[in-house]
Recover the amino acids of this structure.
């Protein structure tokens, strides 16, 4: 659903850019809290979440290369807003998808540069807000189980895709550059993206379910499924027996037995597994993806929305169209481009989230350092 340049006029594109900038600014503040408060025990997993958030962005980039057929001559791909919001939180999720869209637009000429604000508003903001809202509503009414989280993930992802189609239709109604009846655009966009939403829901539910199965403590949407360790009174820690010198009334109350701290579980295996999956999708499986146009491309071609589409500003990029130029073998060219995209998205995403986490940590320690010493 990457909107190219020329589909929407300049004033609406500028307004969408302003909305996208505001959403990113708000998400930067919210992501600091999410990254600092991750993990089963509050901040205990914060140092692991920034790299995992970067991995989520890289994984979304990779899976977006896997177009799957949804109807005759039409394909779809993951949008990723629901997946990112459930795994790392809604604010961080907006940033994850925004990083992916930025990498795709700059490096691969996918999605217009003047339409970047439209794509962020549509594919990052709308999908994340709708998906996370539906997800939180469902987990409140469903039993607090891992299966319920997976089911809620499926429904949230399913609804997020047609919601993005509705958002595009609204933007097109405000600033479309071609004279096409908006009713036809709405019917075609929502109809095909309901089908694409099924694929999005399957991918999201499978991914969330797989992560929950091994590390539920690292899934933002699964917080509360695991109970924290509680201190309990141990019979071995009973009070001393009564003696003539120490009557029973004077005995001290039993002291709770010390419970050993839970061993710190490394997220390295999950991170490596996720990276391997992303590289496999982008570097290998993408060669077998459907070559049919995606939902927006198909609707634009059939309804004439693309008559004023403009050439991408980075059409001459050596990675344009997800293929490394000057490499004759299409499988090698596409696979190498996918690997480069995963690496670039991982590096940029992780860098952004590490900086955010460190700024949050610095802001939290500054007041304590500046506080005056207590007077005795």
């Amino acid at each position: 659903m990457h909107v190219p340049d020329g589909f929407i006029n300049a004033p609406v594109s500028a307004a969408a850019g302003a909305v996208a900038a505001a959403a990113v600014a708000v998400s930067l503040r919210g992501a600091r809290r999410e990254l600092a408060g991750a993990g089963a025990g509050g901040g205990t997993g914060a140092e692991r979440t920034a790299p995992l958030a970067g991995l989520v962005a890289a994984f979304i980039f990779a899976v977006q290369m896997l177009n799957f057929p949804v109807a005759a001559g039409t394909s779809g791909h993951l949008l990723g807003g629901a997946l990112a919001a459930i795994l790392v939180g809604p604010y961080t999720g907006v940033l994850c998808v925004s990083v992916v869209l930025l990498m795709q637009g700059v490096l691969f000429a996918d999605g217009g540069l003047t339409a970047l604000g439209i794509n962020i508003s549509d594919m990052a903001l709308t999908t994340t807000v709708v998906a996370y809202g539906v997800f939180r509503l469902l987990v409140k009414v469903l039993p607090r189980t891992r299966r319920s989280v997976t089911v809620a993930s499926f429904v949230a992802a399913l609804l997020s895709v047609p919601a993005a189609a509705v958002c595009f239709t609204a933007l097109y109604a405000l600033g479309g550059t071609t004279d096409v009846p908006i009713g036809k655009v709405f019917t075609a966009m929502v109809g095909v993206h309901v089908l694409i939403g099924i694929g999005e829901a399957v991918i999201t539910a499978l991914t969330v379910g797989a992560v929950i199965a091994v590390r539920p403590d690292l899934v933002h949407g699964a917080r509360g499924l695991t109970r924290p360790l509680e201190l309990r009174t141990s019979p071995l820690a009973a009070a001393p027996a009564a003696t003539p010198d120490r009557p029973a009334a004077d005995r001290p109350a039993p002291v709770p037995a010390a419970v050993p701290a839970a061993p710190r579980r490394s997220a390295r295996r999950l991170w490596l597994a996720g990276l391997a999956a992303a590289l496999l999708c982008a570097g290998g499986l993408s060669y077998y993806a459907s070559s049919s146009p995606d939902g927006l491309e198909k609707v634009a071609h059939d309804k004439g929305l693309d008559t004023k589409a403009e050439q991408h500003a980075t059409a001459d990029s050596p990675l344009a169209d997800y293929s490394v130029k000057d490499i004759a073998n299409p499988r090698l060219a596409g696979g190498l481009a996918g690997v480069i995209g995963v690496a670039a998205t991982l590096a940029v995403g992780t860098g952004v989230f590490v900086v955010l986490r460190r700024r949050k940590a610095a802001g939290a320690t500054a007041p304590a350092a500046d506080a005056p010493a207590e007077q005795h």
Observations:
- The radius of gyration is 25 Å.
- Residues 39-46, 257-263 have pLDDT under 50 and may be disordered.
- The longest helix spans residues 330-370.
